[in-house]
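Input.
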Amino acid sequence: MVMEAQVAWTEPIEEFLDYLKSERGASSHTLCAYSGDLILAATYFQKLGVPTWRGLMLDKVQSYANTLGPPLSPSTAQRRMSSLRSLLKYLKKSGSGPTMELPSTGGFKKPRSLPKALPIASLLKLLEMPNLATPAGLRDRLVIELIYGAGLRVSEAISLGIGQIDLQECALRVTGKRGKTRWVPVPEITMRWVRRYLESSRPALSKAPCENFVLSDRGRPMARQTVDARIASYARQAGLPSRVSPHVLRHSYAVHLLENGADLRAVQELLGHESIATTQIYTHLDMTHLRSAFDKAHPRR
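Output.
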């Protein structure tokens, strides 16, 4: 009996995760986060005596939401409620969920804090830090070039395959979120580092056949945590005042493009954003630049 009750809660979660993976192309990281969040919610509702997901009422959901305060961070609480809402929406659509109004996910989210784009001078200092006399140092320079020069997510940079690089057209075929593919033009200066890495660094790092373009010191696919740590270390060596992450480099790419006249829709395509609203937030420019652009362009300034 206990086992049947447990299955009544876990089976819908498993079906939902399968849907996210097969229909929505969710990453393993996303699936793991959803799974953990939903198991926690299911356990809580079971302790309250709710028999199944179908029997869930809004007051029980509110009771669960009330447990998501400190010491949980607002972003974690927001994610847990968002995971629950997504599952309930899926179950409601399939006819196997509660008929109640879907719960709100608001009330937890803290104001979005945007990283500041690196000034060009700081970026140049950072690029000078890797030791180019070593295969690993040249590889690190390449990774920074890919993230800033092509605006790649760190996951996109480290999963890039050799076959996704078009040396003649100076472009990359990038597989982004939800498995969507886009072509990204690469500046010639960045492509020079691509060629240099291919010719001298990658052969020295390669220990066995591997399709991944970027290799670790052991000749394996590079981990994102390693990239984070190396970039942060180079930023400290360069004496940069704030922590620099791959996200900061990608943000700098977008901001620098916009500041130099790139169209917002074009930047959306380059970044691989589904919604233009994401790009508008991600590439938020400070008021000084906006004022300058307004003064130059508006006929009634």
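The chain has a mean pLDDT of 85.
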